[in-house]
Amino acid sequence: MSFLFKNLRLLDPRWKEARAGYEVLVEGDVIKEVSAKPIKASDASVIDCGKRTLMPGLIDCHVHTHHSEVYINRMEAVPLTLMMARSTGRLKRMLDRGFTTVRDAGGADWGTKTAVDSGLIPGPRMFISCRSIGPTGGHNDRNRRTDIGPPCLCCNGMVFIRCIADGPDEVRKATREQMRQGADQVKLMVSGGVASPYDPLESLQFTEEEITAAVEEAHAFGRYVLTHAYTPEAITRAVKCGVRTIEHGNLVDAPTAKLMAQKGVYMVPNLIAYDAMKRRAAELGMPKEMLDKNDEVLKYGFKELELCRKAGVRMAYGSDLLGALEDEQTVEFQIRGRVMPAIEVIRSATLIGAEVVRQEGKLGVVEPGAFADLLVVDGDPLKNLGLFKDGGPHLSAIMKGGRFHKNAL
């Protein structure tokens, strides 16, 4: 199938503004031609955009498609079958919001990715981490103090989405196992976290030897390591060991941001996650000790953006919303828009996201040879980031790989 998009304003994130007078031809799953002059394509179906904005599909670099509970310990009562059933709805709703690509930061496996790729369920392109890896007693460890060990994999969704490894050899083996299972990248927990019961935020998790073991194995396999980290100490340790992206990073300071920029390490902030948990997580079961940690990291969100911008750290878009909070996935646009120009916010969810998933020139742009992942927006997102609202009411068309997921034109 081929489609010719006409009568549009083209927003390629490499530009500073949307430009009128362009046409875009899609053939198969890729963009064939982009021109400021009329394109001749007699066999193509013409899509009149009515002067709306055509732009690349959005990329969310930190989602958890299998985390269907805000208080993660409730995943203990979710068997693998129910976890997957819930995930199908979460994936479709992400695509409904205009996210044509997501990087799952722990939980989704090759079966989920294959189901989407083969068209069994609707959803974004997926770059998966399989089970995230953490040490005993760390952010990944959900065992109660009275537990002897985790139950079997099939009966407990929480066990399926994370694993525990101690020492360089165990970390090396766990890393190899995730890649054997089809991981596009490997996730490590290197500091304390909000949604875990026993570890302080400032705790350092994994030694340099353990982190380096994972980085070596990932590089040997043609993959990379992303790390959950909040404090300057944890971020610095991870960066020096060769990780590629830092997730969260709320407590970053100026010297650490400078180090990240020097090493070319990406930051993936998730400010909406903390904002939403502050407002809604208590009623969804999250206990006080976790909410208190959430309040602590929430205080530093805007400072993180400012420090990273000043240092020149490239920041990708990430939401990290668990369970019912998923409906706020696009609110991150408006939060960042308070302290960043709109074009920078959009670039974080297009150009920079494409760099993070290592698909430069294939995703996040509107150019010949790129995948035909496209949105038609009712208005100019550069003037109103609120156009990316939950459910996509202002998205007249959503195309992924040359096929319409939605077409109201």
TrEMBL record:
Gene3D superfamilies listed in its UniProt record: Metal-dependent hydrolases, Urease, subunit C, domain 1
Short name of one Pfam family: Amidohydro_1
UniProt cross-references to SUPFAM superfamilies, sorted A to Z: Composite domain of metallo-dependent hydrolases, Metallo-dependent hydrolases
GO MF entry, a single one: hydrolase activity, acting on carbon-nitrogen (but not peptide) bonds
Segments forming domain Amidohydrolase-related: 53-390
InterPro entries on file: Amidohydro-rel, Metal-dep_hydrolase_composite, Metal_Hydrolase, Metallo-dep_Hydrolase, OTAase-like
Coiled-coil regions, chain positions: none
PANTHER family listed in its UniProt record: ALPHA-D-RIBOSE 1-METHYLPHOSPHONATE 5-TRIPHOSPHATE DIPHOSPHATASE
Protein name, UniProt field: Peptidase M38
Organism: Reyranella soli
